[in-house]
Amino acid sequence: MAAVSDLAFDPWDPAFVADPYPAYAELRGRGRVLYYEPSDQWLVPHHADVSALLRDRGLGRTYQHRFTHEEFGRTAPPPEHEPFHVLNDHGMLDLEPPDHTRIRRLVSKAFTPRTVEQLKPYVHRLANELVSALVEAGGGDLLTDVAEPLPVAVIAEMLGIPEADRAPLRPWSADICGMYELNPSEDAAAKAVRASAEFSDYLRELIAERRKKPGEDLISGLIAAHDEDDRLTEQEMISTAVLLLNAGHEATVNATVNGWWALFRNPDQLAALRADHSLIPSAIEELMRYDTPLQLFERWVLDEIEVAGTTIPRGAEIAMLFGSANHDPAVFTDPARLDLTRRDNPHISFSAGIHYCIGAPLARIELAASMGALLEQAPTLALAAEPQRKPNFVIRGLEGLGVVVR
């Protein structure tokens, strides 16, 4: 069995979290699949394997559609964590067919390309307003002043959450996402449980209101969505709304600040972008590859599989290292170099297969809007102080990003 106890891979080490990419190179050199005892997972660091396994139906985000916890050799979550698991386990990200297929089809009826396209003017107007305020103040924290409020407001607007109710959304999301880190603490679990219960209670009331008085918002669309006699249950609607908020802004927030921090560290690329705003689309793809917002994505082994001659038994958990895959030299020329003109860029930051991010088009619109507004209104934007990394490994971000407008 290949193991990695002697390598630099350590998701709880601040030095590793600050820059995991050298350790990834070491992992890729060691093998295609490696067992990591501290998290009881099989790590997959190569792009080709990650891409293939994301599409492998012998793996699953859940196993409960086929096995009990006992049959699968796993321990059921503690009863006190139930509010989190009820919320999480009814969202399409953590379901497999046939439930995943049914829910994604119904959600797609409400979350259409037309719905996303109609949000464009709102996204651009809000991005310009947020950046304008930042410029008027002479700078600030790019995280709290632009990166966070934009996607939170957009998803809230899309869902139909009134402005007066939006303040708890980001804290709820942050607390729930704490459970996606490796081996979360009991304190993190307690926060996630509380946030899950509060967010669910709020959405239950909002859904009841929309049943009586439907609007043009996504929650009204989810209530109305149906195929023959198939409809979303109330819990599926709640879980879908929370998933869209969490996934729909966590990645965008972190892609924004990770991206600008990368640009400040690569002044030649920032200068090229400032000189040619038509680079924005390829810049967004490259920045998401270069410093991936979601570093790891997990799958359960439902049927024994073999990767590069290594047998991985049913009941094991695979950790696909997105950050490593996005730096694989077998796929990306000179992967450690930020190249905003990179054309051949099959990054997997939005995942792949049936769980490909349904909100990817909206995320790209938001990232382009904030980047465009900053380039146009703040062409002299500069770093105020070196930022501090959040201690999280899986969801990769910064504590803040102080900037000045000179």
| CATH class value | Mainly Alpha
Poorly predicted spans: none
Question: Which structural class best describes the helix and strand composition?
Answer: alpha+beta
- Rounded to an integer in angstroms, the radius of gyration calculated over CA atoms is 21 Å
Describe the structure.
- This protein is of the alpha+beta class and 406 residues long.
- It has a single domain (14-405), classed as Cytochrome p450 (Orthogonal Bundle), CATH 1.10.630.
- Helix content is 49%, strand content 10%.
- The protein is built from 17 helices and twelve strands.
- The strands form four sheets. It has a five-stranded mixed beta sheet, sandwiched between helices.
- Strand 5 (226-227) and strand 6 (230-231) form a beta hairpin.
- It is globular, with a radius of gyration of 21 Å.
- The chain starts with 13 loop residues before the first helix and ends with a strand.
- The model has no long low-confidence stretch (mean pLDDT 93).
Search tags:
single chain; 406 residues; alpha+beta; Cytochrome p450; 5-stranded mixed β-sheet; 3-stranded antiparallel β-sheet; 12 strands; 49% helix
What's the gist of this structure?
The protein is α+β, with helices and mostly antiparallel strands and 406 residues long.
